[in-house]
Specification:
By secondary structure, this protein is of the alpha/beta class. The protein contains 11 helices and 11 strands. The chain has a 6-stranded parallel β-sheet. It has a 3-stranded antiparallel β-sheet with strand order 1-3-2. Strands 4-5 form a two-stranded antiparallel ribbon. Helix 9 (257-264) links the parallel strand 9 and strand 10. Helix 2 runs parallel beside helix 4.
């Protein structure tokens, strides 16, 4: 006797939902904004998929997320935040999306603020890309003196310059003073061609680059001519009182103890001061103690002073830079990355 046609024994088993899979449907009100939400050729969705290890599909005015529930929940949060930004007319870049994912993964910020911090200038809106960057931006707004320490590529200097530009535009300070120790030049400055500005400009170029990125070029040029924006080597700070100014000392790991004390005591009425540096990249002569390390230790827990310490997890310059910093910090890297077959 043959088995009946279509019996359970002959029919293919119905595929079961993969264990751990979760599905979330995220609707959006305005179809006109979806192109900006999804990105060109759905590039924003592709980035969310790769970062979170989920599947994201757009259909009509909804996006369906499939994968582990925690990752899908993060994806929903990030999509809603992107939508809020495009609804306000803000431009969203891949770096912004990466930052939103980092914030969402970390949960509530460590500081007393909530959400992702931003700095606004006439030229652009600068958005924090890691929770520590959000804490840093809030510290710059709340404290008279902030130390921003950590590895290259974490945005220490760029965010400080952006905040300085914002303060200047809003009339909260009368000028910006940016400084660096020209350690590499040492006694050789006199042998370089040109006047003093020509001699020191190569060492201060990163500060110029940040300024031109957050302010219109014509304003930067005008303010440099009038002295509203001043960029000078640390040695030029001696004997001055910097009142009603936003003052930034970059590459402060290359200051001596006496130089750091000299700079700190330039702080004047109505001023904000930011000191940035990477304690792992000291260019001082062997045996010379860094003034940055000493200052952070001595000034800990003093009212009005805040230290924000970035780590390799906060590197936003590029994924490659993040891996380089992690390698130098001794953090094991996933096997197979960077190798060819």
């Amino acid at each position: 006797m043959t088995a009946a046609r279509g019996s359970a024994a002959q029919r293919p088993a119905k595929p079961e939902k993969a264990p751990g899979k979760h599905r979330i449907v995220v609707p959006f009100d305005d179809n006109r904004l979806l192109a900006h939400l999804l990105g060109e050729y759905d590039s924003h969705l592709a980035l969310i998929e790769s970062r979170l290890g989920i599947e994201a599909h757009a259909h009509g005015n909804v996006v369906t997320l499939t994968g582990p529930q925690p990752a899908c929940e993060i994806g929903r949060t990030v999509l809603n935040q992107i939508y809020d930004r495009v609804r306000k007319g803000e431009t969203v870049t891949p770096g912004d999306i990466d930052g939103l994912i980092r914030h969402a993964r970390s949960g509530p910020p460590a500081g007393s603020g909530t959400g992702t911090a931003q700095v606004r200038t006439r030229k652009r809106i600068v958005t924090a890309r890691t929770p520590m960057q959000s804490d840093y931006i809030r510290a710059l707004d709340r404290h008279d003196l902030v130390f921003g320490i950590g590895p290259a590529g974490t945005g220490k200097t760029y965010l400080a310059v952006a905040q300085a530009a914002s303060y200047l535009e809003r009339g909260l300070v009368e000028r910006i003073v940016l400084s660096r120790p020209a350690v590499e030049a040492g006694e050789r400055l006199g042998f370089l061609p040109g006047d003093m500005r020509d001699k020191v400009d190569p060492y201060l170029r990163p500060l110029y680059d940040a300024l031109y990125d957050v302010l219109p070029p014509e304003k930067v040029e005008k303010d440099l001519e009038t002295g509203t924006i001043e960029i000078a080597p640390l040695a030029f700070m001696r004997g001055r009182t910097l009142a009603h100014s936003f003052v930034i000392l970059d590459e402060a790991q290359n200051t001596t103890s006496m130089q750091m004390k000299m700079f700190l005591t330039r702080h004047g009425e109505g001023s904000r001061m930011v000191i940035t540096g990477d304690p792992t990249q000291i260019d001082l002569p062997p045996g010379q103690k860094s003034g940055l390390d000493e200052a952070v230790r001595l000034l800990d827990n003093i009212e009005g002073i805040q230290t924000v310490a970035f780590t390799a997890a906060d590197v936003v310059r590029s994924e490659l830079v993040a891996r380089i910093v992690a390698a130098y910090d001794g953090v094991p890297q996933p096997s197979g990355r960077g190798r060819s077959g």
